[in-house]
Amino acid sequence: MILSLFVIFFFILIILYYSMNTIRVSLSRTNS
Question: Which segments cross the bilayer (predicted)?
């Protein structure tokens, strides 16, 4: 139970990190 919650939380962190990286790339492309 707790392990599954930890896995889900870790997965969400990975998605957020990846989305932040893509947003950064898109912003840098539009600025330059």
Answer: 6-27
